[in-house]
Amino acid sequence: MGDGSWYAKKPLNAEDFIGKLDENFANLSTTKQIDAAFNRIESAFGKKYADEVKKLFDSTSRSFNTSHMGEFRFDMKGNPIIDLNKKFGNSNILANTILHEVRHYRQFNKLNLSIREWHGLPEEFVERYATGTNIWQGKKLGLTTEELKIFENYYKYYRGLE
Fold first, then answer.
1. Cα angle: 83, vertex 88, 92; to 5 degrees
2. How many CA atoms lie within 13 A of 81 on its CB side?
3. CATH of domain 15-157
4. Where do the structural domains in the chain lie, given as residue ranges?
5. pTM value?
6. What is residue 23's three-state secondary structure?
7. Which of 44, 122, 124, 129 is found 20 to 30 A from 13 (Cα to Cα)?
8. Torsions phi, psi of 151, nearest 5?
9. Which stretches of the chain drop beneath a pLDDT of 70?
């Protein structure tokens, strides 16, 4: 390919992403995407709150997937992990997902349970807590109607409303 030809980057397919596609965001590294999400959290909720969330988030390890939006879990050594999808379309939906997963971590810390006890809790119990603020936070972050619907459906599901 040393013939001097220039090849354009393949365009992104919006259907491959969660939420409305912002190509500038989607082309960032995961580190820069997370930074952009925390900028959104700070602009929506203030620096103090964003710093508190970031401190908890940074105290976990990270992993990335393509099968679900996010998950708070522990590795085999008992270290907390926040697992995030690597196909978020914009900083708003990533920010709301981070807030959801950090809320799980806050609940774990608040309940002061062992990891074994945490894993023994009913899924409905931990998800009701974690989804408790997703809708109003999503609105404040500026999620689109379709993006907000994801969190609304999750909220309703764990409350038997769907």
1. 100
2. 15
3. 1.10.10
4. 15-157
5. 0.92
6. helix
7. 44
8. -70, -35
9. 1-9
